[in-house]
């Protein structure tokens, strides 16, 4: 074996390879020609990628010569740690360059900042983007309430779609936001301003990271050096790449030598971010010597679940999943409920029944199209004392108080970061949006007396508080040791927390968690950028989750459930308007994406799959006073699909038994005050 320092054991790798099926093995043993692995759900693509990495190491490839690109931090670290186990050399696996597209782009961009004319790289996250655009929109006639104006979120979305699909913003507006056409010129002007402001202040949003990385890869000099760095480029979830990511991958491997991509066109669920499953299919044509390996043996689910998945599976690759498991298993259940309350009660009943039958809560999940769909269920779970964690929807780092603390780190690291100043300023008493804008400009412009100038320019009532914040923050700078810097920020944010959030005691622990995590870093700038690039989703990612010894149920959006599996999956609200979402009903492209989401949801279940269909739904997902209207079952539950399911109708839907309800004794008494009239 060549490669000197790497001590990969042949025995460990041989053991790992022994468990693979012939198609998996073909992919793992493939040489250096371009390889496309079309892998249906649950066919072990993670195992194949990690085994391929382990096999390369065993063959003597130096770990530094391998680049592994994934879509989530979780996937990257899971793959690298599995590869470490497989190859029996954890340190070798750690030397592999790996991470999400954005994280790897960030590393490349930070390393070549000078080539891009940047002194430092400050990454801003999607919420900062909103704040910055908000800060500028007034200068483009986009403030006011006389006519319907696109929201800042919509404007940010237009910018991102334009970049991710490489389409002029004007065309994006015409095709996807036609109602905003009248303001197209102003929006385009605002977006140019936004771009220039970011450049002036040295800020990069997540799209800029990909743009900059793509430009570096395309640069004759830097690109050649990057290509020389990695002989092997492996990409997971290739169906989710957008054009910029395709350009980066193709730029790193122009002739496809050493390139492996894995993907499933039926699981492409990020079209709204500019991704296209078409890229996977195009790659097969792009390299004439590409090898296509199809993985169709499913190691996760029972055949009846796969029969349903195969029935609804969209996509051009036409993969048909066959169960590896010998035992037949039960058919998926179609549970018809009366309304959202009945649905919530029924799900809770069935969760507890499965629990009694031996399926712990952590082996069960309730999946939903949109986070708000579980409002009634969450109440029901609380009432019954069923502990749960919810994934998807609002992430931990999007919570306001957490963002306040991160903003304070940012202004120290980059005092020109106007957006973060703006955020901190608006947290002060008596500082409205207009004064915050003006003060942020003073502080970000960085004059010698900026602190005094800002305090003097602040509304009188705000001066004392502002002076105190600025003096706490002014005591440190980017060269201060990280723990002291973090402590100063934590002290500066503390009074803002108490003043702005009535439930501040609850939030304090979150800030302590981050402060603790941040204080342990050697490089705070990277830590802050990482939070923007790949935010953690739950507070539990920071610190020990509460009640670790407790068993808890998972509630998750389908997007957040991608790549995961549970013994029992409860699919909530399979109704038209919910799944597919009503936003997608009028667009064939949107509907196709919803169909793929449905497929992703079904294929998360190992043993039991319950699909719930209420026949009435509230007009508003969370309002308890909302009216109920008739709801149709999802169009994806076609006749042939239903024929593969067991039908269950809840008691609330079944015809009422003929009992005289009026004579039943009341369970809840209301006569406590009757005495008053004795
Ligand atoms: N050769 C194998 N023998 C036994 N089990 C396997 C094999 N390959 C994969 N598995 C198991 O099958 C399950 C699915 O594997 P994995 O998560 O890698 O699939 P996937 O293709 O990434 O799925 P999805 O695309 O649905 O997320 C896992 O529990 C994994 O351990």
From TrEMBL:
UniProt domain UvrD-like helicase ATP-binding: residue ranges: 18-302
Binding site for ATP: 39-46
Class of enzymatic activity (EC top level): isomerase
Sequence ranges assigned to domain UvrD-like helicase C-terminal in this UniProt record: 303-563
Its EC number(s): 5.6.2.4
Reaction(s) the record says it catalyses: Couples ATP hydrolysis with the unwinding of duplex DNA by translocating in the 3'-5' direction; ATP + H2O = ADP + phosphate + H(+)
Keywords: ATP-binding, Helicase, Hydrolase, Isomerase, Nucleotide-binding
Gene Ontology molecular function terms on file: helicase activity
Listed InterPro entries: DExx_box_DNA_helicase_dom_sf, DNA_helicase_UvrD-like_C, DNA_helicase_UvrD/REP, P-loop_NTPase, UvrD-like_ATP-bd
Family: Belongs to the helicase family. UvrD subfamily.
Name of the featured protein: DNA 3'-5' helicase
Organism for this UniProt entry: Microbacterium deminutum
């Amino acid at each position: 074996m060549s490669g000197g320092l790497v001590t990969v054991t042949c025995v460990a790798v041989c053991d790992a390879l022994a468990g693979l099926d012939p198609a998996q093995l073909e992919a793992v043993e493939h040489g250096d020609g371009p390889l496309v692995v079309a892998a249906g759900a649950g066919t072990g693509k993670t195992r194949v990628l990690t085994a391929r990495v382990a096999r390369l190491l065993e063959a003597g490839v130096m770990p530094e010569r391998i680049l592994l690109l994934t879509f989530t931090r979780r996937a990257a670290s899971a793959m690298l740690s599995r590869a470490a186990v497989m190859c029996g050399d954890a340190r070798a696996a750690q030397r592999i360059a790996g991470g999400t597209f954005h994280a790897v782009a960030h590393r490349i961009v930070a390393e070549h900042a000078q080539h891009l004319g940047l002194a430092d790289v400050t990454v801003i996250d999607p919420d900062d983007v909103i704040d910055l655009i908000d800060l500028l929109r007034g200068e483009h006639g986009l403030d006011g309430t006389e006519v319907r104006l696109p929201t800042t979120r919509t404007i940010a979305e237009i910018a991102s779609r334009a970049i991710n699909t490489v389409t002029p913003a004007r065309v994006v507006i015409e095709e996807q936001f036609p109602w905003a056409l009248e303001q197209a010129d102003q929006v385009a002007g605002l977006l140019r301003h936004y771009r220039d402001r970011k450049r002036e202040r040295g800020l990069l949003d997540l799209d800029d990271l990909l743009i900059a990385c793509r430009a570096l890869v395309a640069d004759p000099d830097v690109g050649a050096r990057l290509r020389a760095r990695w002989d092997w480029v492996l990409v997971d979830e290739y169906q989710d790449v957008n054009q910029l990511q395709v350009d980066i991958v193709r730029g790193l491997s122009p002739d496809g030598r050493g390139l492996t991509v894995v993907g499933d066109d039926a699981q492409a669920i990020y079209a709204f971010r500019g991704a296209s499953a078409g890229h996977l299919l195009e790659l097969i044509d792009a390299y004439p010597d590409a090898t296509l390996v199809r993985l169709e043996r499913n190691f996760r689910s029972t055949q009846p679940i796969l029969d349903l998945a195969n029935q609804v599976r969209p996509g051009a690759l036409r993969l048909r999943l066959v169960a590896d498991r010998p035992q037949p298993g039960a058919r998926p259940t179609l549970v018809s409920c009366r309304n959202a309350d009945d649905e919530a009660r029924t799900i809770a009943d069935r969760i507890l029944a499965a629990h009694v039958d031996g399926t712990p809560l952590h082996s069960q999940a309730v999946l939903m199209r949109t986070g708000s769909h579980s409002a009634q269920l969450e109440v029901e779970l609380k009432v019954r004392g069923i502990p749960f964690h919810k994934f998807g929807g609002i992430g931990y780092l999007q919570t306001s108080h957490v963002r306040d603390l991160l903003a304070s780190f940012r202004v120290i690291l980059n005092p020109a970061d106007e957006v973060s100043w703006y955020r901190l300023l608006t947290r002060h008493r008596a500082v409205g949006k207009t004064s915050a804008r003006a003060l942020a400009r003073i502080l970000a412009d960085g004059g010698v007396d900026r602190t005094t100038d800002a305090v003097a320019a602040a509304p009188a009532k705000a001066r004392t508080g502002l002076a105190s914040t600025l003096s706490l923050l002014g005591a440190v700078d980017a060269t201060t040791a990280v723990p002291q810097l973090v402590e100063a920020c934590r002290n500066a944010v503390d009074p803002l927390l108490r003043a702005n959030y009535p439930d501040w005691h609850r939030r304090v622990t979150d800030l302590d968690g981050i402060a603790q995590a941040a204080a342990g870093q050697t490089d705070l700038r990277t830590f802050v950028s990482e939070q923007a690039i790949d935010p953690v989703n739950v507070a539990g990612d920071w610190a020990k989750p509460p009640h670790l010894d407790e068993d808890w149920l998972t509630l998750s959006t389908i997007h957040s459930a991608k790549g995961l599996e549970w013994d029992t999956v409860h699919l909530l609200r399979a109704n038209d308007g919910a799944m597919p979402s009503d936003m997608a009903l009028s667009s064939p492209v949107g509907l196709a994406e919803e169909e793929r989401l449905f497929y992703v949801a079904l294929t998360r279940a190992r043993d039991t799959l319950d699909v719930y269909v209420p026949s009435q739904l509230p007009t508003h997902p969370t309002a308890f006073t909302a009216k109920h209207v008739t709801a149709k079952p999802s169009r994806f539950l076609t006749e042939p699909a239903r024929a593969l399911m067991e039908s269950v109708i809840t008691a609330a839907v079944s015809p009422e038994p003929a009992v005289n309800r009026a004579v039943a004794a009341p369970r809840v008494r209301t006569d406590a005050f009757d005495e008053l009239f004795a």
